[in-house]
Amino acid sequence: MIRIESIAVGMDTPYHDFLLCDERSLIYATLEYRDFLLRAVGGKATYLVARDEQGQIVGVLPFFSIESPGIGTVINSLPWYGSYGGCIVTGNHAALARRELLNQFRSHAEAPGVLSATVILSPFEEEFLPVYRDTLSPSAYDHRIGQLTQLPTLTDKTEKELEAKLQQKTRNLARKSLKQGFDLRERNDEEAWKFLYETHVENMLAVQGKHKPWDHFVALREALPPGSRRLLIAELGGLPVAGLLLLYFNKTVEYVTPVIKLAYRSQQPLSFLIWYGMLDAIRQGYSWWNWGGTWVSQESLHHFKAGWGAIDMPYTYVIASSPAGRAKLSEHRANLGELFPFFYTYPYAQLCQ
Predict the structure, then answer these.
(1) Residue 144, SS3 per DSSP
(2) From its phi and psi, is residue 203 left (phi > 0), alpha (psi between -120 and 50) or beta?
(3) Which DSSP category does 268 fall into?
(4) By Cβ atoms counted within 10 A, which residue in 25, 29, 80, 228 is the most buried?
(5) Cβ(333)–Cβ(351) under 8 Å?
(6) Terminal CA-to-CA distance of the chain, rounded, Å?
(7) Residue spans of alpha helices (H) in 211-310
């Protein structure tokens, strides 16, 4: 017997402890990340908890919903730049807990006014895609290539073992970066965060991409405790020339926002930061460096991550939407990004124009 309920006051500690029972759980499922999302994208947070006969937590499934008045509601597990969602389950009741959580999610997805409900599986949950398909009866899928580097364990040969994971070109660039005279700084001051944001904007404009808003960086800094995030800065002659924002939870480090002053690209300050970031993660006992998702079309980005020893771990967006919901999304196709900011709605190519 599995009972499904929404997380209640006083459940923060057992919820956190449950996440740590599964080495594959990621920061996206934490309540601190929930608080960040509430600040950054708003909407309503629903965190489903599965309990067994003894009342022990055996599974969780977090999701957010956002309503555009007069249009409808969109559900994501989870929103904001493809944050992983889906189920985290453990123990003898894992399979049953997953199905019951998904059944409850489906009841929310089928509520009046819901236009679409998307679950973004983590690469570690992808093997259970058939269960999501059978339970949610999705109308569409979207696919990404997850890339993760499995970090070596800490020994007196750690640096050599890490080097051995890198492709030759990347190894050479990392070695070059260590000879440029960069200073490594871990910073949490306003000036450093402003550097991260402003350089991020410059980098995105250079590739005609969309940058993250400043208030999202503020929200992340406020919601996540210092132990869950680090901002590494490479300085040259006292000036910041590259930055790297990393998130930490359980056994995985998340590669979130890398930035570099373009004039210093040839000196490889980002390689410098990644190298030391990985070594520091190994010393702290982390097992995985998660580079995040890559579009199939992003060949150069995929190649860059692969150079750092990343292995491909594909994952799927599972999207459930009724014919009426898809019709409404098609009707507002041109401005879905404004109606449901930072939420995934539906594959645009599959919506009628």
Answers:
(1) strand
(2) alpha
(3) -
(4) 29
(5) yes
(6) 46
(7) 214-223, 269-283, 299-307
What is the DSSP pairing of strand 252-260 with strand 288-294? parallel
Q: What is the DSSP letter of 137?
A: -
Tokens linked to 334: 């041109």
Residue 88, token pair as written in the block: 């985290």
Look at residue 247 in the predicted model and tell me its pLDDT.
Answer: 98
What pLDDT, in 10s, does the model give residues 210-236?
Answer: 999 999 999 999 999 999 999 999 999
Identify the H or E element spanning 225: none
- What's the average model confidence in pLDDT over 110-132? 98
User: Omega of the bond prior to 78 within 30 degrees of 0, cis?
Assistant: yes
Q: Which amino acid is at 246?
A: L
Coil vs helix vs strand at 24: coil
Q: Which tokens go with 314?
A: 């594909």
SS (H, E, C) 296-333: CCCHHHHHHHHHCCCEEEEEEEEEECCHHHHHHHHHCH
Q: Classify the C-alpha dihedral 302-306-312-316 as positive or negative.
A: negative
- Confirm if 76 and 341 have CB atoms less than 8 A apart: no
Which tokens belong to 351? 């919506």
Q: At how many degrees (to 10) do helices 269-283 and 168-177 cross?
A: 100
